[in-house]
Specification:
Elements: H1 7-33, H2 41-52, H3 54-83
């Protein structure tokens, strides 16, 4: 039976699906090591990776770096306050 689309498009579609799932698995595994600030982000990032693929991984890594720097700044403020004399 002939298809209305070229055969190479089937290969590209399967490759895109595989890459999306691989990126989602990578993000889920990384979420076990790095806690998210909001619980919903545990769902948002892997779902985004399914349709964005490597672009979602780049965005996830950038947001993780921003989150780490923000948490580090907050932790430093708390440490400084704890070290102050009342």
């Amino acid at each position: 039976m002939e298809h209305a689309y070229p055969g190479w498009l089937n290969v590209v579609a399967w490759a895109a699906l595989g890459l999306g799932f691989a990126c989602a698995i990578y993000i889920v595994a990384d979420e076990f090591r790095h806690r998210q600030m909001m619980w919903i982000m545990y769902l948002v990032w892997p779902i985004t990776a399914l349709y964005m693929g490597p672009f979602a991984v780049v965005a996830y890594r950038r947001s993780l770096a921003r989150m780490k720097s923000a948490m580090g700044a907050d932790a430093m403020k708390i440490e400084h306050r704890a070290g102050e004399k009342p």
